[in-house]
Sequence to fold (579 residues):
Amino acid sequence: MEQTINLDEKFVMPARLKTWSFVLIAVGLVGIIASFFTYTGEEGTKHLWATLVMCAVYFQGVAMSSCFFIAATYVAYGGWHTAIKRIPEAIGMFLPVTSLLLLIVLALPNFIYGYHPVYEWTHHDVVENDPLLSGKTPYLNLPFFFIRFFFFVGILLLLMVLMRRNSIKEDAQHDIKFYKSNLTWASLFLVFFAVYILITAWDWLMSIDAHWYSTMYGWYSFASNWVNGIAVITLVVVYLKRSGYLGWVNFSHLHDLGKLMFAFSIFWTYVTFCQFMLIWYANIPEETAYFRMRYDHFMWLFYAIFIINFVTPFLVLMSRDAKRKMRVLTIAAIIIMAGHFTDFYLMVYPATVGEPQFGLVEISTLLFFIGLFIFGVFTNLGKANLVPRNHPFLQESLHHST
Amino acid sequence: MKHYLLGLFDDEEILLSAVDKVKEKGIKIHDCVTPFAVHGLDHKLGLRESKLHIGGFWVGATAATIALTFMSWVFVGNWPITYGGKPHFSFPAFIPITFEFTVLNASLWMTLGFLVLCHLWPGRFRESLDPRTTSHLFGMVFKITDKTSAEEKSRIEQVLKEAGAIEVKERIMEKHY
Fold:
């Protein structure tokens, strides 16, 4: 793995990657448009919008986790990640796109149908005759829903853009003031992120099962988002390294990414099991309804996510050598990404679609988002140096060894 | 009787570079004694990786199996009691205890294993090569046998001095240090 180190290196998107991303976007878009004609009727539209919401939330989570990675490492005065810092930054700057798409899939159905097919609490006639749902209207109503969306997503987006701008300015000018100012933005980011991650978990995911609630849900969906975000960062780092970039990234950086994937896979298991066990133990009907639904219709997936998201990363990434092999990291990252997609699937589908289904709409939406993600992230990567060369912790990171 | 040659350094960076210089000259380093774990030293000395964590994994796996089997046997076979309408084999309820038992065993047995591997059980006393290597000096140790000639010894001394050793001394000890 001998590579020359050139700190002025810039990423140039290969033409083939660009073509492929456009093909994915085009195929996905055609598939989504075709789905609008094939998935009709009440069940069909519900299914269609559930898929769109799920994919948008999934990719919003990836982008937001990368922003969180940047902010958390700033506040912790972290140094090791400086060599790969531009990758989470590039993924984080994909946030405007995912936020816009998410806004579209959350808002558009309300204009088309007068309610959102995925969210039962937007149906006026249902809410009126349902004491539980009408009791929740002070929180679960559309104006407040979008106020929360704009407030939290807007603030976090603004802070991410500010952090990115400082980071790029730092490349041109050797000055500590950019780092200090980013420290402020990162601290603010974390404060708002803490509320964002809980509120949006309730709004976008938990309110699909509007009758049900769980106090562990925010943690659960955060853990899923976060480990998935790290897996995506790892995958992009390994891809760039394989393509001959990032000569300064050594096995220790890969090792640390592997450690994060390993640790947060266990964290995900911990919070997921915690949520399940408390509900299983208390055995209160209105709480167990959530798992009853998953157990009756999604039993294999329900067990499979524990195998995919816990047992596999736990055994694959346990040894030190495994975390230092790019091939193993790639496989582990892909398994984790697929596993957490299944996890989101299990959060959204039981209350909307009811049966496990994977067809045209799922595949085309996924292709569309993957294409868009590849194009957006790698375009962002090309906009700046691949390493923040005036970052105060750069030397520490270049000599990182674990 | 054990016979050692000890080169003392006052900085870990000098020690690290000295290891390379001494190895370049084809001299075999027996060991290094430092007041704290010097990062990268084990790699430079070419020490094999510790097997402690592999032991830890198998102890953990055994403990998890024991805990699960024991609880299943007690609550299903030996003394079944119905708690809150739950089935006798309530797997989720066993998980926290299995987890705790696994962690407890893995960590305790790894600690004990570490002490045994370092020959540090209670009552064991070992003389230090030089007490200063426990506080502020870094030592590089060479073994001296009957075959080692006086020329060889002075060559090692020379190399150590050139590499930045502040002091070179010989120690004859009753037992392994």
